[in-house]
Amino acid sequence: MNSAVLSPGIFNIFVGLLMIALCIPLLKCRIPMNQWYGVRFSKSFESTENWYKINKYGAGRMIFWSILIIVIGVMALFIPLHGKRTLQAAMACAPLLLIIPVIESWLFARKLKSDN
Fold it and tell me: Residue 74's CB: how many other CB atoms inside 10 A?
């Protein structure tokens, strides 16, 4: 197995598993409002209710996309990619998919009512 395929594959699996591990407490609403950990949009800090709703939604979306990154990582380990530089580069950039749940969470937060 080629190291050009092995490294992105293992990296994608690691990133996906790490993100899932970080999101589980948020999904279970176990992280109180803070400045360091969670989905921290201005709307998140308007109320405790918003904090938990946004973090639960964001964690769920992040887990979904992290699973997709893990699948891409596993595929990178088993699909022959010799000489297919474009596909290798695409698989190496798979963690960029995590931008999607950030946008989804931001759009979700915008729909919540303000407590002002």
Answer: 14
Phi-psi region of 105 (alpha: psi -120 to 50; beta: other; left: phi over 0): alpha
Torsion of CA 13, 15, 20, 26, to 10 degrees: 180
C-alpha span between 23 and 29 (Å, rounded): 10
Q: Do the beta carbons of residue 76 and residue 9 sit within 8 Å?
A: yes
Q: What percent of the chain has pLDDT over 90?
A: 72
Q: Is the dihedral of CA 10, 11, 16, 17 positive or negative?
A: positive
**pLDDT per position as a tens digit, 48-90:** 999 999 999 999 999 999 999 999 999 988 887 666 778 878 8
Q: Is 62 in contact with 95 (CB distance < 8 Å)?
A: no
Domain ranges of the chain: 3-111
- For 10, the 3-state DSSP assignment is helix
Rounded to 5°, angle at Cα 33 from 30 and 39:
85
